Amino acid sequence: MLRLRLFAFLFAALLSAATTINAQEGLWDAQLDSPGGPIRFGLKLERSSEEHWSAWLVNGSEQIEVPSVKLADNGNLVLSIDHYDSQLSLVQVPKTDVSDTSLTGTWKKRRKANQWVEMSLNASLVKEQKPDQTAAPLSFDGRWKVKFSSSDSPAVGIFKSDAKTNVLSGTFLTTTGDYRFLAGSVVEDSMELSCFDGAHAFLFKAKQNDDGSLTGDFWSSNTWHETWTATRDKDAQLPDSFQLTTATAANINTLSFPDLNQNETRLDDDRFAAPVRIIHIFGSWCPNCHDAGKYLAELKAKYGNKISVVGIAFELTGDANRDAVQVRKYLKRHGLDHPVLIGGGSSSKDKASEAMTIIDEVRSYPTTVFANKDGKIVAVHQGFSGPATGEAYTALKSGFEAVIEGILTSNK
């Protein structure tokens, strides 16, 4: 009996040693397994002590710090991207050569109240490699007029490559928002771009045809696939985002929703009074909305009491307490303190459209409504072109501030 107990103890110790994270610090090449192939992103790990780690998700020039990194009792390294209700759980695969150590695990994210995305993941330390090219790669640089098979709306692709490494970066702009920071590579006549930000896992592939056009595929995690085509067009632009969604009511003050404490609140509440009133229709689960949240903080810092912002959130579960927790995480992440009302417990745009009776339709998260001090609607902006879009982001900020300045002037 004593021998059996000793064997069990030794076996448990060996198992623990095999699963405890002892990975090297540095940049890891992480890959999520998708139906279209690996969705690659960078995973940067740093350790300040035996049990204290920090981590960043790396997509091209963007590095997103992971809010919580903990070593679990089972030895797994758990990366919690709490603001998206998302989690990576990693375990080390031990090998004789430390330089060949790999990580494996899963990514899990809530989609709805009782629905989750779950994908397997593996990672290896990034090693410097020379591009393996049998021929000089074709150029994918520049602006492209893009057509996604699931949509009649226009889209624009912006790509730029590094001639020395054949690393490709860029994004897609659409009338509902951009696909944020994408990174990948070019090999001969084919390109690949991907990203993982804790909420979305995207993979774009395309081949350049003899006529210079592109034919490609797009996968979003393991839940969506569609095709896309593109042609070069240096003048490719999206339509004016201030002209895509229209007001169907003269005033915002008729709307009423519960706040985060479940108290019914009207938009004509005196607490929301200001010369310029901004209604931010969003979801805490939405990366474009997080880009917008960061910019709203900048606007508040610039204009102070001249503007008031009220968020109307459409969340994932319909559980008022849980949805309020996620909204508070969103606000905390961006240093925001404006009030938020819960428009609904579903991300369905159809249901959001039914609730938002002041506009013709909710086509995008976020959608931003600008009103004057009396609540009269002055402008509605659809979607958000964030930092990854470069000049488009600069133009968006100029447009927002022009509307604000115009309302301030008209109030005089």
Automatic annotation (TrEMBL):
Keywords of the record: Signal
Residue span, Thioredoxin domain: 244-405
Molecular function (Gene Ontology), one example: oxidoreductase activity
Stored Gene3D superfamilies: Glutaredoxin (3.40.30.10)
Cleavable signal peptide: 1-23
Origin: domain of life: Bacteria
Stored InterPro entries: Redoxin, Thioredoxin-like_sf, Thioredoxin_domain, Thioredoxin_ResA/DsbE_sf
Name listed for the protein in its UniProt record: Thiol-disulfide oxidoreductase
